[in-house]
């Protein structure tokens, strides 16, 4: 395959997200402008101007009308996807790390980093249909986990919130009361910071990637460990194919060590694993730095990766990808 | 307008003057017929060829609908959204989106099947190969699927392979000098009668009783080699070649023994020995050509 290279960001990529129809690709980077691209040919549609810090995460509503972004400038912003217009700004006292719309797009979960003696927190905000009625009030505020929370997502039927972060423990919270329901145990869980978390297409299981050089597959309801994928590099990003039983892990050596070693030693490929057999299928090379973000097109026929090198690489699979046998 | 009446009588001078599109108004208009229900469209055009003759061109095309191109209505709508933000004032030359010039393949980690075979081979190597015994070829007698090279019953009968032959450095050099043809250049140090104490001494120090081990697995490190070779006698040096860029083993190494007999025994025993699923090749380290 010949990937499409998109060089719209001047700083390392942090997050990638497709909309539900799979025709738009949203990219976040440490420069301050989240960008939207056409997912078929990689043409830039627009940028969302207004943040004043690195943008860590974004999510798009199901109807592709609203975009929410979380940034290190201690805000999360709501945007009109079509025009790039700012609709609302949620102000926090610490950087916003992760954002996720609930099913139905009426709620959003936003996590904030520990900062200036403030602990990390998970905020649940109500998203109004009419942006003029939007308020910044939190419906729920969860505190407790030590260290940064790198990712928080909604569980099935919005009943739970799943969070993971620096303390390597995956937690399931009740999204109404804020009570801690489940915790991954130390034995089977990750040993180092969990960097990324991705739900399967049906939400029945999710994948976490960690700096302990492994990715783990968990059952969403029971939080039991299903599979472990072991690799030889820290995992910064994970994605699951909605079409085939494949998972993709991206990562590479620490960004600070990249210039001191040969690029072959960095292991910057996106690695494909068989979801069930846990065996490596192959690697896709190309980035000149660690991969920070991965996303699968909802049709499963293309995926994109964003790297520390500032490039988004959009890969449309060759036909023979769809009948790979182990 | 005067031209239109007599287009055939154009003078070449005029042609030269206004070549190109200016003449197009002389031609009958472009006709488009279709597309009909089969998607067939006919386009009739007229143009002047190089000699100034009028040519009629009929292009027939058939448009076929692709069955799988399924796009949601809203996705199609989004296609025509105007650009916004920084994308509005994009330079034509900025080329933010490029197609990679390099063909990227999904690289398979290992050849098919090799991974699944590993545990089986480790468990019972002979039983595994009894069925598809082609893989086991004795390099001494050439028999297939009967025994490993190191267990060859005809080992003593067969002429020793070049790996087993001990070539003393001094006699080798002399032979080379003697065998050299008349005209060929022989360096002073190699000429008959020359003192070559320093050269051979230096080489002796580095290469004495040095055994080269090749076809090592990538995971093999120096301590592993030491463990493998120490039973044969005292070892003075172990070295595994490491690729400086990747930090991976390059698949060969050297072991220096204190005594030559130990080295020979190690070669006899370990050449063809299965180690980490690879068959080791152990031989005397031949000095470099230069």
UniProtKB/TrEMBL annotation, chain A:
Gene3D superfamilies: YVTN repeat-like/Quinoprotein amine dehydrogenase. The keyword Cytoplasm applies. Keywords: Cytoplasm, Initiation factor, Protein biosynthesis, Repeat, WD repeat. WD repeats lie at residues 6-47, 48-89, 142-183, 187-228, 284-314. It comes from the Eukaryota. The keyword Protein biosynthesis applies. One of its GO terms (molecular function) is translation initiation factor activity. One of its GO terms (biological process) is formation of cytoplasmic translation initiation complex. InterPro entries: eIF3i, WD40/YVTN_repeat-like_dom_sf, WD40_PAC1, WD40_repeat_CS, WD40_repeat_dom_sf, WD40_rpt. HAMAP family: eIF3i. Component of the eukaryotic translation initiation factor 3 (eIF-3) complex. Component of the eukaryotic translation initiation factor 3 (eIF-3) complex, which is involved in protein synthesis of a specialized repertoire of mRNAs and, together with other initiation factors, stimulates binding of mRNA and methionyl-tRNAi to the 40S ribosome. The eIF-3 complex specifically targets and initiates translation of a subset of mRNAs involved in cell proliferation. This is Eukaryotic translation initiation factor 3 subunit I.
TrEMBL record, chain B:
Keywords: Cytoplasm, Initiation factor, Protein biosynthesis, RNA-binding. The keyword RNA-binding applies. PROSITE patterns: RRM. GO terms for biological process: formation of cytoplasmic translation initiation complex. Residues 186-207 are annotated as: Disordered. GO terms for cellular component: eukaryotic 43S preinitiation complex; eukaryotic 48S preinitiation complex; eukaryotic translation initiation factor 3 complex. It comes from the Eukaryota. Its main location: cytoplasm. Residues 209-287 form the RRM domain. InterPro entries: eIF3_g (IPR017334), eIF3g_N (IPR024675), eIF3G_RRM (IPR034240), Nucleotide-bd_a/b_plait_sf (IPR012677), RBD_domain_sf (IPR035979), RRM_dom (IPR000504). The keyword Cytoplasm applies. Transmembrane segments: none annotated. Belongs to the eIF-3 subunit G family. RNA-binding component of the eukaryotic translation initiation factor 3 (eIF-3) complex, which is involved in protein synthesis of a specialized repertoire of mRNAs and, together with other initiation factors, stimulates binding of mRNA and methionyl-tRNAi to the 40S ribosome. The eIF-3 complex specifically targets and initiates translation of a subset of mRNAs involved in cell proliferation. This subunit can bind 18S rRNA. HAMAP family: eIF3g (MF_03006). Component of the eukaryotic translation initiation factor 3 (eIF-3) complex. PANTHER family: EUKARYOTIC TRANSLATION INITIATION FACTOR 3 SUBUNIT G (PTHR10352). This is Eukaryotic translation initiation factor 3 subunit G.
């Amino acid at each position: 395959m010949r990937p499409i290279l998109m060089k719209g960001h001047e700083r390392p990529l942090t997050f990638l997200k497709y909309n539900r129809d799979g025709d738009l690709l949203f990219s976040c980077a440490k420069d301050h402008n989240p960008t939207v691209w056409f997912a078929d040919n990689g043409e830039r549609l627009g940028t969302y101007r207004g943040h004043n810090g690195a943008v860590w995460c974004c999510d798009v509503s199901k109807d592709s009308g609203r975009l929410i972004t979380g940034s290190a400038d201690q805000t999360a912003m709501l945007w009109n996807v079509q025009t790039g217009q700012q609709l609302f700004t949620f102000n926090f006292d610490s950087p916003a790390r992760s954002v996720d719309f609930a099913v139905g797009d009426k709620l959003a979960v936003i996590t904030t980093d520990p900062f200036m003696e403030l602990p990390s927190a998970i905020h649940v905000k109500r998203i109004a249909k009419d942006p003029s009625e939007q308020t910044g009030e939190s419906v729920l505020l969860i505190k407790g986990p030590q260290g940064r929370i790198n990712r928080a997502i909604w569980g099935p039927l919005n009943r739970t919130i799943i969070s993971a972060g620096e303390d390597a423990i995956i937690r399931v919270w009740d999204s109404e009361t804020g009570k801690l329901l489940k915790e991954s145990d130390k034995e089977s869980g990750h040993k180092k910071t969990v960097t990324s978390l991705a739900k399967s297409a049906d939400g029945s299981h999710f994948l976490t990637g960690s700096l302990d050089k492994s990715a783990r597959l968990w059952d969403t309801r029971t939080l039991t460990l299903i599979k472990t994928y072991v690799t030889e590099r820290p995992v910064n990003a994970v994605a699951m194919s909605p079409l085939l039983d494949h998972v993709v892990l991206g990562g590479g050596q620490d960004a600070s060590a990249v210039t001191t070693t040969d690029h072959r030693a960095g292991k910057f490929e996106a690695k494909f694993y068989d979801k069930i057999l846990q065996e490596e299928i192959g690697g896709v090379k190309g980035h000149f730095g660690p991969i920070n973000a991965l996303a699968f097109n909802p049709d499963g026929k293309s995926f994109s990766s964003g790297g520390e090198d500032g490039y988004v690489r959009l890969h449309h699979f060759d036909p023979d990808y769809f009948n790979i046998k182990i | 307008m005067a031209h239109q009446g007599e287009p055939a009588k154009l003078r070449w001078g005029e042609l030269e003057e206004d070549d190109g599109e200016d003449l197009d108004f002389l031609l009958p208009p472009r006709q488009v017929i279709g597309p009909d229900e089969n998607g067939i469209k006919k386009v009739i055009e007229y143009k002047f060829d190089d000699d100034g003759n009028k040519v009629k061109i009929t292009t027939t095309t058939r448009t076929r609908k692709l069955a799988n191109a399924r796009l949601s209505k809203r996705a199609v709508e989004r296609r025509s959204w105007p650009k916004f933000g920084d994308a509005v004032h994009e330079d034509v030359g900025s080329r933010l989106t490029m197609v990679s010039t390099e063909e990227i393949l999904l690289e398979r980690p290992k050849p098919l099947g090799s991974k699944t075979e590993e545990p089986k081979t480790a468990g019972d190597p002979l039983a595994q190969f009894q069925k598809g015994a082609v893989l086991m070829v004795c390099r001494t007698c050439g028999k297939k699927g009967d025994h490993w090279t190191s267990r060859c019953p005809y080992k003593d009968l067969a002429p020793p392979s070049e790996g087993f032959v001990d070539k003393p450095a001094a006699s080798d050099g002399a032979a080379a000098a003697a065998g050299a043809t008349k005209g060929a250049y022989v360096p002073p140090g190699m000429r008959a009668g020359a003192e070559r104490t320093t050269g051979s001494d230096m080489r002796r120090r580095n290469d004495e009783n040095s055994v080269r081990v090749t076809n090592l697995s990538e995971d093999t490190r120096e301590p592993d080699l030491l463990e493998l070779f120490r039973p044969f006698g005292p070892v003075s040096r172990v070295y595994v070649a490491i690729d400086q860029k990747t930090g991976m083993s390059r698949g060969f190494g050297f072991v220096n023994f204190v005594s030559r007999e130990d080295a020979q025994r190690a070669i006899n025993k370990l050449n063809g020995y299965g180690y980490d699923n690879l068959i080791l090749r152990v031989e005397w380290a031949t000095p470099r050509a230069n």
